Amino acid sequence: MLPLMEEFYSxxxxxxxxxxxxxxxxxxxxxxxxxxxxxxxxWDAAKYPPVLTDKIIEHAASYPAKAIVVTGGxxxxxxxxxxxxxxxxxxxxxxxxxxxxxxxxxxxxxICLSPxxxxxxxxxxxxxxxxxxxxxxxxxxxxWAEENARQVSSGCILYLQPxxxxxxxxxxxxxxYIKSHPKWKISLQAHKYMRIP
Length: 197
Ligand code: SF4
Known about the structure:
- The chain contains 5 helices and 9 strands, in the order βββαβαβββαβαβα.
- By secondary structure, it is of the alpha/beta class.
- It has a single domain (2-194), classed as TIM Barrel (Alpha-Beta Barrel).
- Strands 3-1-2-4-5-6-7-8-9 form a 9-stranded mixed sheet.
- α3 (139-149) links the parallel β7 (131-136) and β8.
- α1 (53-61) packs parallel to α2 (81-89).
- It binds iron/sulfur cluster.
- The site of iron/sulfur cluster has 12 residues, from loops.
């Protein structure tokens, strides 16, 4: 069972799979505590009654995309082996969004790591990361981005994403930086511009 905060069918709005239809599962509970978190209501897992994992799998399988984004909160606070195996058993591609601050579990077709200064990733996740997305508020965050970029594999796709409430000042900083550091790309929260979940 997992404390399910919400589940919905939408399009991925961030990073490499932007535009891809997916079923989203937001699991309650996070111990990272980012000041600018846009889902603070997810932090307290006790607010979300545990739901049978089989039900989550059944719901995900009922949508045509056959792709799921497991997010939070911090989903790796829970062992995700049963969920991810069950999803694979239904032919569903599994995508994980995590800060990497807890031990990794589960079978993933794609891992998006978003490292947070308040609870840095455990070293074990870096080699498994397909995509790293660093949230940028100001220039200092670029140093944090580079620190993490040194630890992922050479094939990992690197994104800088403006913190939404600071986007008017963060976007020009990111654009300038990427032009001189071309291993990075920008990720925008397209779902917010489209006003979809
Ligand atoms: Fe919010 Fe994610 Fe940070 Fe947790 S890790 S506080 S859910 S932004």
